[in-house]
Amino acid sequence: MAGVSEERLTQVIDRFEETEARMSVATEPTEIVQLSKDHAELKLVADKARELRDARAGLAEADAILADKNSDPDMKELAQEEREELKDRVPELEQEMQLLLLPKDEDDEANAMLEVRAGTGGDEAALFAGDLFRMYQRYAQLQGWSLDIESMAEGDAGGYKEIIASVNGRGVFGKLKFESGVHRVQRVPKTESGGRIHTSAASVAVLPAPEEVNIEVRMEDVRIDTMRASGAGGQHVNTTDSAVRMIHLPTGITVVSTEKSQHQNRARAMEMLKIRLYEKERAEKDAAMAADRKSQVGSGDRSEKIRTYNFPENRVSDHRIKLTLYKLEQILSGDALNEVIDSLITEDQAARLAAMEEA
């Protein structure tokens, strides 16, 4: 692996110090907020750059002492110990620095919309969709994120035909983005008395929801319908037509908001519409860069079968990175989902590093 140049390390440190200097004199609230975000992101990289630079200097100094025939024997002994420590540490720091310098997905720090829908398998698919949603609910809780249900349609035997939630917190999309796709379950259904193993599926979509979505929506391109909001089981939760459905005529994208206030629903529906249009734009950019997908773990294609949960074997397999873990219950409960997600992130980073070296 090619090392990070001294010039690049200096650039990183200089940029961080420049940001610190600007923070000390900034007076505009918006500038202060942006500089604070930049400072938080750059500090980790600058600290690592300094650590790598110091380790390289220490290794070079130790080598110089060992090569000098006139060096004091005690100094040589200390230099040898230093060299033994640093010869392995420097390559580790090089790799850590390379990862920190990888181009970032601008949406990795964004909040996200999480959508889980039952696929093939009837009632069992809806039950599995419910299992998946609770897995993400628990994972979000462990990450310190907030998760709020936006809309849901319950299955006849339990679970969900569809459930949509907003997930808010630091780095949500960066953690969840590889979850988009088809999830498959193999088990004896709760609705099956014959004891046969069935295969069912549910689809997951994770959409980035940045705080500011720079998408312009012309109101003449939107049709707004009002209707009566329904709760669990279909009962009406109020007696007024407060729910709002927005249809974006040029794309056919439809969103529904079912809060109690029609005013709130209009604002929320517009926010959700912008998120979906943003995702559409993002997907089109991904399609244009399809040739580079070989360096990515997954494209986020919602029709791609990404993972199998096999109950008889207590096995979870992620097909994209050929990862198999025999701890289905812990993963589906959300407690060990981080093992899968962290492996996906690591694999993606390694693939992008390899692609950079080949370029």
Q: In words, what does this structure look like?
A:
This protein starts with 5 loop residues before the first helix and ends with a helix. The chain contains 8 helices and 11 strands. An 8-stranded mixed beta sheet has the order 2-3-1-5-4-9-10-11, with helices on both faces. It has a 3-stranded antiparallel beta sheet with strand order 6-7-8, with helices on one face. With 359 residues, the chain is of the alpha+beta class. It has helices spanning 6-25, 29-67, 73-101, 122-143, 172-176, 262-288, 328-332, 337-358; strands spanning 111-118, 146-154, 160-168, 181-187, 198-209, 222-227, 243-248, 253-257, 305-310, 315-318, 323-325. A hairpin with a 4-residue loop joins strand 7 (243-248) and strand 8. Helix content is 47%, strand content 21%. Helix 1 packs antiparallel against helix 2 and helix 2 packs antiparallel against helix 3.
